[in-house]
Amino acid sequence: MHVSPSLAGTERPARRGALALARIAKQFGDVSVLRDIDLEVRAGEFITILGPSGCGKSTLLRIIAGLEPQSEGTVVIDGVSMDGLAPDKRDIAMVFQSYALYPHLTVAENIAVPLRMRRLSRLQRLPGAGLLPGVHRTNGSIAEAVRGVAAALRLESLLDRKPSQLSGGQKQRVALARAMVRQPRAFLMDEPLSNLDAELRVHMRAELAQLHRELGATFVYVTHDQAEAMTMSDRVAVILDGRLRQIASPATLYHDPDDVRVAQFVGMPRINVFPAVATPAGIGVLGMPVARDSGLPIGTRLQAAIRPERLAVTTGAGIPGRIVFRENLGADLFLHIALHGMASPAIIRCDPSTLESTEIGATVQILFPAAHLLLFDSDGRRIARNG
């Protein structure tokens, strides 16, 4: 994707779109949806708000846009408070999950709507107003801007079509074009890819990431899909149960989470979590010492987490288990292994070449590499780095 010179011109001031949220809270009656959200987004950053359905992430996006008032806290964009300011005064663009295209307008007319609303008066927008002073010139500049953004998103051949004549991916690009055409200081995107099929979602992820790099604009993206968050974002803000649990780069969230709930939400397959305890010999997991020198009081109850690719099946000493299921995905093999005292099986990522030697029902030994063990306290907070 290449952004045309007319779209990426010098009119837009550099480094716009810095966003700061301070102690944002939202209640609907007696229900608390968001609690004490503090979040800073750097100008030009691609940040994703990630969380399960119902966690409050879309509500937070609507608060930033001005579509929903917060119960407490402040929203600041480029150093200016947005509190009480109408959505059209915030100079931001929002892309919705439903695309929200006007069905009776062509693609070109849909893209032009934001510019017509801002550059033409109500009288100048009426049918037959083309002879009024300045209207012809303004319509010409709008048409030029529409052609520029259409070229950037490869929509030139679709400009005369109606939304009913478009595929899902084409509708998504039209919605993006409509947001891009007025060059806002920030883009807010509410699960914009969720209505697309799996193959097209992968394609659009790459296009959105490239678009962000070329525009240099601030993107605030909401999704429940961790693949979208991990592949496109500079940083990811994980919201669970209405609270911001951690904000960090995708790699940090995966390898160095601050909260066991973040560790469990990020990563496929899900991270393995085992009960553990501090013993004189170190950290004991399921009755076997797997790490030393924890520095914790003897008897401290812990949660020990480890990613499926860090566990290993060994012929030596380990924790015994029984294979209850195999997921053969071609490039990956995941073994589900039942362990004594565990309600759910552990999942181990193995080389596919081990498929022939790992039968369902077979007893195996699991090795826990201490260097990759993540320790959390009983409340789920990270209490120690790799031991």
In short:
The chain is an alpha+beta fold. The protein has 8 helices and 21 strands.
Describe, in plain words, how this protein is organized in 3D.
There is one protein chain. This protein is of the alpha+beta class and 387 residues long. It is 23% helix and 31% strand. It is built from 8 helices and 21 strands. The protein has helices at 57-65, 107-119, 135-152, 168-180, 198-215, 226-232, 250-255, 260-265, and strands at residues 19-28, 31-41, 46-50, 72-77, 80-81, 92-95, 186-190, 218-223, 235-240, 243-248, 272-279, 282-285, 288-291, 301-306, 312-314, 319-328, 333-339, 346-350, 363-367, 374-376, 382-384. A 6-stranded mixed β-sheet has the order 6-7-8-3-9-10, sandwiched between helices. It has a 6-stranded antiparallel β-sheet with strand order 13-12-11-14-20-21. Strand 4 and strand 5 form a beta hairpin. It is elongated, with a radius of gyration of 26 Å.
List keywords for this structure.
387 residues, alpha+beta, 6-stranded mixed sheet, elongated, disordered N terminus
First CA to last CA: what distance?
A: 45 Å
Mean pLDDT: 88
Number of helices: 8
**Biggest sheet layout:** 6 strands, mixed
How is the largest sheet built, in terms of strand order?
6-7-8-3-9-10
How many strand units? 21
Could you say which structural class the secondary elements and strand pairing correspond to?
alpha+beta
Estimated radius of gyration? 26 Å
Approximately how much helix is present in the residues? 10-25%
Cα shape: elongated
Strand percentage lies at 25-35%
Element string (H = helix, E = strand): EEEHEEEHHHEHEHEEHHEEEEEEEEEEE
Stretches with pLDDT under 50, minimum 5 residues: 2-13
